[in-house]
Design goal:
β6 and β7 form a beta hairpin. The longest helix is centred in the N-terminal third of the chain and has 14 residues. The strands form two sheets. Strands 4-5-7-6 form a four-stranded mixed β-sheet, covered by helices on one side. The chain is α+β, with helices and mostly antiparallel strands. Helices cover 36% and strands 17% of the residues. It has six helices and seven strands; from the N terminus they run αβααββαβαβββα.
């Protein structure tokens, strides 16, 4: 089983619960939870946060290193055109400002529509629900609209 996990995921790569389920091919929820529990006890994977796991480093000196928060956010909220960073990070990405926020602000359609803004990862990230479902067809239109909304914070006139 360790070969299957090591061939499917890189060290310190965030692993979502659904990805792990697809690799292990276990349909029953109870059986899957027990299997994940065994994988955690054995040390093949470690828990980052509820529903997010990672493969730890094999070297004991680096075994406490976790995946980067940006990798986790990218995989959980932004992958497949489902979301993007907003605010100063978006302006910085398109060279409208040199400011970079230490907090992560995300606009995503991969969060409950009933919640406007959710603080995640001990308050280091704020995930806002998109007013419309983001997909490949409308992604860049929404990014452009978000840029226009925040252009007043640009470093340029």
């Amino acid at each position: 089983m360790s070969e299957l996990i090591s061939s499917s995921f890189e060290v310190r790569e965030p692993i979502l619960r659904d990805e792990l389920r697809a690799i292990l091919k276990i349909e029953n929820d109870h059986s899957f939870s027990q299997y994940v529990s065994v994988l955690l006890k054995v040390g093949l994977i470690k828990l980052f946060q509820n529903g997010i796991y990672y493969r730890p480093e094999s070297d004991s000196r680096f075994s406490k290193l976790e995946p980067s928060l940006m990798d986790v956010i990218e995989k959980k909220y932004c992958a497949d055109y489902k979301g993007f960073r907003i605010g100063s990070a978006l302006l910085n990405q398109y060279k409208f400002t040199s400011q970079v926020s230490s907090n992560y602000e995300i606009l995503s359609s991969n969060v409950s529509k009933n919640s406007r803004s959710v603080k995640v990862f001990d308050g280091k990230a704020s995930v806002n629900s998109s007013k419309l479902p983001l997909n490949k067809n409308n992604y860049y239109y929404v990014v452009f609209a978000e840029l226009l909304k925040n252009i007043e914070y640009s470093d340029y006139e």
